[in-house]
Design brief:
The chain is α/β, with parallel strands linked by helices. 36% of the residues lie in helices and 17% in strands. A hairpin with a 5-residue loop joins strand 7 and strand 8. It is globular and about 65 Å long.
Length: 574
């Protein structure tokens, strides 16, 4: 180590889990159940179990529970929603494991889901599905799941590192995974976490958009870490825009989702002229069409001048009766009233909002990556949802694959030796992180973050075209150069500007891959819409885009054919 290397504390563990949402906590629980003797460490950028996006889930969890439903039907719906870009084994695993995980959440974790009068779990309608299979707890499903998982963490007594951000994966002198570097947000102290197995489950990066739904701390940290470590990612152009995000002016609640269950229950969408505009875009399914179709329809209404002055449209469920809406969607009704609206009694203004990343690190069905000992689960992984995620499949993915990651981690922890991190890789990570504190005349990060959000919203948003994407490529490269020279005042302890700098670097890393992948896909498919290529291109078979990045260079892209191992689009009549 050099004299400039900051002091750091070393933590030794068997399994290090980065992220404490549904994927991270299910991973910890399953890892402990598989081998109670393992030392498990959960690393969370916020409060364990009380931050992140799973807790924000309103709608529910898709699972086949009714005898009239079938796993095959759920699988077909998932592939149809994903426009057959899905990794079919991953999607098949999701729909098969989902019922088992629901039963585990109820009987072992302690979740209470809404029930029918006969005592069976109640399931509701969600868009894009052929059967009402969405399990829920009112419109506060995520809070129910995460609260009970948090209780389980107290039982298994895993080590919890709260308000600690992961920085980089580190390797030993032979190139084998040795753990990761971290930073305590409150104290500014660095950590080296040595581990036999690392599980990355940090969530997505949609906060790089001006109107966005995820929790503030979701800045693409996991995918950025993996890209810096040389791992390939797939489907990065597939960023889902939820069609109904709140519009509340400059409030941080702008972009917060009004969940899919509203449209499933019979809510209508209107433009500023009072027209129920989905008749123009999907007259058969109307508001119950898939998220990509509805978001694109709303966007079209807005840009063609039929939107509101604030740049939105209206969602209205008041025709179903105020009392029923208040009982059924309690959380959303209260949320709209905080900002002067009233979902139960009148239309509410909404806009498409950046929501969920279908793309991510390439994994197998046991969450393994090409790096031995490194697992990825949840929104950091790609392939499950293809080009578009069905509502209700997100929390299912997090818990299903979090559970599988825990099972795999327990096995691997018994096989992998604990490595010694190469001092040079540790030093390089800490040096990169502290660069803004050492710079003397650079910019503060906040203007760059605002510029990034505007750039991604306008040039790589709901609908894209080549000239805007090429402009985004050039401007992102310049932003990345400016980000290399960021300067923030000290001290290191509880320094929001420093944390913003680190967030920005990760967002830029992911944004550049999104834009390059969006340029490469010259068609409209699922969440990826190109106005200059408005039709899907199926001739010659579907291919998915794989990106990798070396250092700070522009990402390199290749394509691979989609393998129709279980269902070919022709067999489904597509």
């Amino acid at each position: 180590m050099t004299a400039d290397t900051p002091d750091y504390e070393e933590v030794v563990t068997d399994v290090a889990i980065v992220g404490s949402g549904g994927a991270g906590l299910m991973c910890a629980l399953h890892c402990h159940e598989a081998d109670p003797g393992l030392d498990i460490t959960v690393i969370s950028k916020g409060a364990v179990g009380r931050s992140g996006c799973t807790r924000m889930v309103q709608g529910g969890f898709n699972a086949v529970l009714d005898p009239a439903d079938s796993v095959d039907a759920h699988f077909r719906d998932t592939l149809a929603g994903g426009k057959y870009l899905n990794h079919q084994d991953l999607a098949w695993t999701l729909v098969n494991d989902a019922p088992k995980v629901i039963r585990e959440l109820e009987t072992r974790v302690g979740c209470f889901f809404d029930r029918r009068p006969d005592g069976r779990i109640k399931q509701k309608a969600f868009a894009g599905q052929s059967f009402d299979r969405t399990v829920h707890r009112g419109d506060l499903t995520g809070i129910e799941i995460m609260s009970r998982l948090r209780d389980q963490m107290l039982r298994i007594a895993a080590r919890e590192l709260e308000d600690v951000r992961a920085l980089d994966l580190v390797f030993d002198a032979g190139g084998r995974l040795a753990g990761l570097t971290c930073l305590e947000v409150q104290t500014g102290r660095f950590l080296l976490v040595r581990a036999r197995v690392v599980v990355v489950a940090t969530g997505g990066a949609a906060t790089m958009y001006r109107i966005a739904a995820p929790a503030r701390e979701k800045t693409g940290d996991g995918v950025a870490m993996c890209l810096r470590a040389g791992l390939p990612v797939r489907d990065m152009e597939m960023l889902q825009f939820h069609p109904t995000g709140l519009l509340t002016g400059r409030s941080r609640m702008t972009g917060a989702v009004l969940e899919e269950g509203l449209r499933g229950a019979g809510a209508h969408l209107y433009n500023a002229r009072g027209e129920r505009f989905m008749e123009r875009y999907d007259p058969e399914r109307m508001e119950r069409s898939t998220r990509d179709v509805v978001a694109r329809a709303s966007y079209t209404e807005i840009i063609e001048g039929r939107g509101t002055e604030a740049g939105g449209v209206f969602i209205d469920i008041s025709h179903l009766g105020a009392d029923w809406v208040e009982r059924t969607f309690t959380g959303m009704v209260e949320r709209t009233r905080l900002f002067g609206g009233d979902l139960a009694r009148k239309p509410v203004e909404v806009s498409p909002t950046a929501h969920f990343h279908m793309g991510g690190v390439i994994i197998d069905t046991d969450c393994r990556t090409e790096v031995p000992g490194l697992l990825v689960a949840g929104e950091d992984a790609g392939g499950v949802h293809g080009a578009n995620r069905l509502g209700g499949n997100g929390v299912a993915e997090s818990t299903v694959y979090g559970a599988r990651a825990g099972d795999t981690a327990a096995r691997l922890a018994r096989e992998h030796a604990l490595g010694d991190a190469d001092p040079e890789t540790v030093e390089a990570s800490f040096s990169r992180a502290t660069a803004p504190l050492r710079a003397g005349d650079g910019e503060l990060p906040y203007p760059l973050t605002a510029e990034l959000k505007d750039l991604m919203w306008e040039n790589c948003g709901v609908v894209r075209r080549r000239d805007r994407l090429e402009d985004a490529r050039e401007r992102l490269a310049k932003l990345a150069d400016r980000a290399d020279r960021l300067s923030v005042p000290g001290p290191a302890a509880f320094n929001p500007a420093w944390q913003e700098s680190l967030d920005l670097v990760n967002q830029l890393t992911v944004a550049r891959v999104i834009v390059e992948s969006a340029l490469a896909r010259e068609e409209t498919r699922g969440a990826h819409a190109r106005s200059d290529f408005p039709d899907p291109q199926d001739d010659g078979g579907l291919r998915y885009i794989v990106a990798s990045q070396a250092g700070g260079d522009a990402p390199g892209l290749t394509t691979r054919p989609v393998e129709y191992g279980r269902l070919h689009p022709r067999e489904a009549g597509r």
